[in-house]
Amino acid sequence: MRYCSIDIETTGLNPDTCDILQFAAVLDDLCDPKPLVDLPRFTTYFCKDKPISGEPYALGMHGQIFQKIANAQRLGLEFDDRTGDRFMNIESLPEALACFFIKNDWPMDKKNRMKVTVAGKNVAGFDMRFLNTKIKNWGQISFLSRTLDPAVLYLDYKNDKELPDLKTCMDRANIGGEVSHTALEDALVVVKLLRHKLLKKTK
Fold first, then answer.
1. Closest residue by Cα to residue 91 from 123, 44, 55, 124
2. What pTM was computed for the model?
């Protein structure tokens, strides 16, 4: 089964009043699991003409992201050769993401559309809700309504009062480190968590 692990970094929890700063996608195939370092990945920062809005606690978490975006806007960068960072308006995401899927041989149906199963921690309730608020037309991409959330795989049903957060899932899978709050690293963690339970591997 092929799926796309998605993560975003935002300026808060409300998609109507907050902005998306960063987006990342990692492609994986559970039937043909390549090493993590070889998985196709797409990441971008979002620039906008209007001031960024959001909630204080979230704005305070993303100082490095704001520096990258400000520098890109100052220099008029779409791609930074030194770091590999990509910058675009959020309206450009559907076309850029579709090109990424096509480049990596994602299958198309008879209507020339790509049906995509999405994975991520709370991806349906947060990431896709945010993305669909900002983007009304995904073009060739059709995100399927059923998503893969690793939290249910790491539920301790006898003791948990709610589904575990990403850090708890990492601890239960013996995956070291902290939640990075960078979109690409968190998308890769979701791949590790799914593989650990479904394939008994994290590499």
1. 44
2. 0.94
What is the C-alpha to C-alpha distance for residues 179 and 165, in angstroms, rounded to an integer? 10
Assigned token pair, 87? 């910058």
Q: Which token pair is 108?
A: 């198309």
- Using CA atoms, how far residue 132 sits from 16, 34, 74, 124, 177, in Å, is 11, 30, 29, 10, 31
Cβ atoms of 169 and 150 within 8 Å: the answer is yes
pLDDT reported for residue 145: 95
Token pair for 102: 């096509």
Whether the pLDDT of residue 179 is over 70: the answer is yes
Q: CA neighbours within 13 Å on the CB side: how many for 164?
A: 20
For residue 49, the model assigns a pLDDT of 84
Structure tokens at 100: 């990424």
Task: Using the Cα atoms of residue 37, residue 184, residue 141 and residue 94 in order, give the sign of their dihedral.
Answer: negative
Please measure the distance between the N-terminal and C-terminal CA atoms of the chain and give it in whole angstroms: 17
